[in-house]
Amino acid sequence: xxxSGTLLVLFLxxxxxxxxxxxxxxxxFDHYAHWLREIGVPLLPxxxxxxxxxxxxxxAIGLHIWAxxxxxxxxxxxxxxxxxxxxxxxxxxxxxxxxxxxxIIALFVIYHILDLTTGHLNPVGxxxxxxxxxxxxxxxxxxxxxxxYVVAVVAVGFHLRHGIWSAVRTMGQQTSKxxxxxxxxxxxxxxxxxxxxxxxxxxxxxxxxx
Amino acid sequence: MTTDFWTEGEPVVDKAAPDGPVETxxxxxxxxxKLVNPANRRKLTVIIVGTGLAGGSAAATLAEAGxxxxxxxxxxxxxxxxxxxxxxxxxAAKNYRNDGDxxxxxxxxxxxxxxxxxxxxxxxxxxxxxxxxxxxxxAQGVPFAREYGGLLDNRSFGGTxxxxxxxxxxxxxxxxxxxxxxxxxxxxxxGNVEMNARHEMLELIIVDGKARGIVVRDMVTxxxxxxxxxxxVLASGGYGNVFFLSTNAKGCNVTASWRAHRKGxxxxxxxxxxxxxxxxxxxxxxxxxxxxxxxxxRNDGRVWVPKAQKDTRRAADIPEDERxxxxxxxxxxxxxxxxxxxxxxAAKNVCDEGRxxxxxxxxxxxxxxxxxxxxxxxxxxxxxGNLFEMYERITGEDPYETPMRIYPAVHYTMGGLWVDYxxxxxxxxxxxVGEANFSDHGANRLGASALMQGLADGYxxxxxxxxxxxxxxxxxxxTASDAPVVEARKQVxxxxxxFLSINGDRTVDSFHRELGQIMWEYCGMERSEEGxxxxxxxxxxLKEEFWTRVKVPGKGEELNQNLEKAxxxxxxxxxxxxxxxxxxxxxxxxxxxxRAESQTPDGEALRHDDEFSYAAAWEYFxxxxxxxxxxxxxxxxxxxxxTRSYK
Amino acid sequence: MDIKVRxxxxxxxxxxxxxxxxxVKGISPDASxxxxxxxxxxxxxxxxxxxxxxxxxxxxxxxGACSMVINGVAHGPEKATTTCQLHMRKFSDGDVIDVxxxxxxxxxxxxxxxxxxxAFDKIIQAGGYITVPTGTAPDAHATxxxxxxxxxxxxxxxxxxxxxxxAACPNGSSMLFTAAKITHLGLMPQGQPERDSRVIDMLQAQxxxxxxxxxxxxxxxxxxxxxxxxxxxxxxxSDYRKAITKx
Lengths: 210, 647, 247
Fold this sequence. Notes:
The complex is a heterotrimer. Chain A is mainly alpha-helical. Helix content of chain A is 73%, strand content 0%. Chain A has a single domain (2-205), classed as Up-down Bundle (3 helical TM bundles of succinate and fumarate reductases), CATH 1.20.1300. By secondary structure, chain B is of the alpha/beta class. Among the domains of chain B are: 276-411, Flavocytochrome C3, Chain A, domain 1, CATH 3.90.700.10; 483-613, Fumarate reductase/succinate dehydrogenase flavoprotein-like, C-terminal domain (Methane Monooxygenase Hydroxylase, Chain G, domain 1). Chain B has helices spanning 25-32, 38-41, 53-65, 103-113, 120-139, 172-189, 255-262, 326-330, 340-352, 369-375, 377-395, 450-470, 483-502, 508-522, 529-549, 561-585, 609-612; strands at 7-8, 45-49, 68-72, 90-91, 165-166, 193-196, 199-207, 210-218, 224-228, 231-234, 267-268, 273-279, 302-306, 323-324, 364-367, 404-413, 416-417, 430-432, 506-507, 550-551, 614-619, 628-633. In chain B, the strands form six sheets. A five-stranded mixed sheet of chain B has the order 1-22-21-11-17. The chains are: A mainly alpha, B alpha/beta, C alpha+beta. Chain C: Pfam families: Fer2_3, Fer4_8. Chain C: Belongs to the succinate dehydrogenase/fumarate reductase iron-sulfur protein family.
């Protein structure tokens, strides 16, 4: 979980940084999107890097889900009879919502790809002008799309708040001081990431961009 | 001498004890003991009942040596044996403090502390092996308290003038037991020990005059089985629960020892009971046990009561000159650190005068205000923090703000099955270790000596002496169809059947509580001929009532905690009678036994060495209902009896 | 105080169970939780009902026998406190209190509130010790141990093996228990020779016993009566990583 999760977190940050390009200008954003396909050229043919990276992501996601499934199945087996008095959450809320939060995020990722990558759900702009697609997506009339996006991004934030710290612990972090630090960093990173992701749709909805 | 209550038989003699210089007795005994060839050891089986410090360490050590060990405990895991609750520490004559300690001084202190009613040979051996215990435990990873230089820390404990007590915060027993438990688990994992948790020994099997096995009940399924071995070791602890309220765990019981006693093993000095001065007082009729606060608290706490009777003011409102720091007043040189028996009786006396504090007037203050002023709250917290927390959890009072209330409670029993120097009882092949035997503490045990004795017996003494017995084995095979085995099994089954069939109108606990009240009233901190005679009558009547009115619900073939308790209480009732008879016959005051008729003009204990310098070993009630007394004379060649004075 | 308790009743390992409600009247706030059950049991016995079976022994918070999930919380509402040290003054008159056993596949119910925790012994058997046959030890002062390490080892060694961590863990994991022993022995110089095999073998035993996996949810440490911190699990993870890379 920790290794695949770390890869996914790195991707999320790269993705978020790219998103912010839209504040520099729509043309720059489109140029950035185009550049993604040209990484590695001429060593690699155009688009190859993106595909390699996509496969890498898919593998990480696959491993992450597989590990989560194994843990979930083990957890179910380890407690065949449930408590009648539902146990109160005393540890962290974020920690206790990892599983369902993860499922919500997975569903969102599928939607998100169909929406903004392949354009199946949002046939505006085409591959050459992704900025137009983004702007169309988060238009005020599409408030429900924006809302779904916001909910999903906040879920990612919760997921990472526990996930980043938990990964550090799994890797062997072991002092109480380090624990406080790791938890603070996980929280900060999650908040920053959520802010980065939410800035784009909010800007579009409020008409600051486009 | 024969009375209405007992008859006197032949003296009992410890034939295993070597004579000659005390310093070399243990060496010589080890050298003269027969050994068992390592290749033959795996053909020999030893049953060990109990997994506390003595039983756990003995099982691990004998298994390491190559014997087949079968181990039994009533708890769900060997790690829960009641040794785990010991707080204060463990003595060892390491002299790491360079304060004049030595094996001889520990020996001297222990004989004197036991009020000259222990065997010199045993005590000297205990002091000798004490140093090995610490080495062993440190090697096992027991996290003793340490100094900044990385070396072991020591403290002075319970009335000694040297610092020889090793400790692990207030949880020394837990840490030592986990060390022994881990060694035992290692042997279980290796297949050298067959561990049977949740199993209770209900009878001893004797074949051809030798202890050859036990009858046990599986406490989960209720199945009764017979288990055989070449020797049986009882490490089943003390019998403080005869008082119902004590600091013992709820499950602690005398059944293993008592069953052996009924089969012929002598029971020595049953009346020697240690009453611990620093326990949390009772809070009401629901009380199920008492909790001890480590005696180390007396190092910094000051004990006092109001000078006036029935003073109901809050402690803080009682001015300094209206307080009676009675231990410091009566015993100026030892003050609050006088031995346990003296501190306990002093508390009883001030409460009897009507100066006790708290509910029912059964309590005295243990005040840390001075220590907090002198050392600062932080230092006090570092030393006693966990004890203070425990006190607050139980009483709901904050001891940093209001003084603790303490009262004496039964804590340890010095008496037990009689054993010789080899720790063998009067039944060949039956060995008894730890608190279950009577051997090392005399009439009073010093603080931090129980852990020392348990581990000394289990790690170092028994493994060396039992080989002398086992060298004659393996003994002829015993089977379940042998007449003595069938009979022992039947006794167990009949008794269970009897408990379940009475179906009376009183619960087991109600009998246990009543027995406890009788014992505490008449055979507690102060005993008298009149009281003890009355108690014997009351106990006999209670026994009669028990066997006609007890109600034990459920069946035998299931987990049945009331059936377990019924068996234990039935044995406690018989033991209680013997304790009163022993207390009645010992017309002197010594150690934990204080007879009202035998005191100095200023109320101190008065021994009668001319008449009572012996261990009283009792044979089970004969046909006429009277136990037979066998005396073992005690000779003091090194530490000459003197009057203990802590003034 | 007058209260109601709803208690899990199950007559045997393979029997079904259910929550049964009992009235308990006139309980002193100074009584412990187990003393309240004692009082209830006395009534049940005299009424010809089967008393509630529950594990308990020392009743001073050190043996680790008592084990009740009270209102969904292992050992009940008071922090750093075993069931036996919980007192009725923590509850209010008229409360309805749910009492259940530890629930974990590795801790099967024997009867009512009594569970079988021998899986913990198996984890210790796998490596929770230092191999030192009796009588072979060097002098206790031969190896100084820095006070900081000895104190930290002691803190970890205070685990009483009650199993509350497993009962509270959403995954039914025994990681905190195992980590406490790994930390205790791993901090002592005497524990170094077996450090690598210990962590590998104990984790294997833990998986074999049917405990769930750890997701650092942190519920264990909130119910631990001895306050064993979650950070020890990081230490176990670190030891494990080093041990498998060496192998």
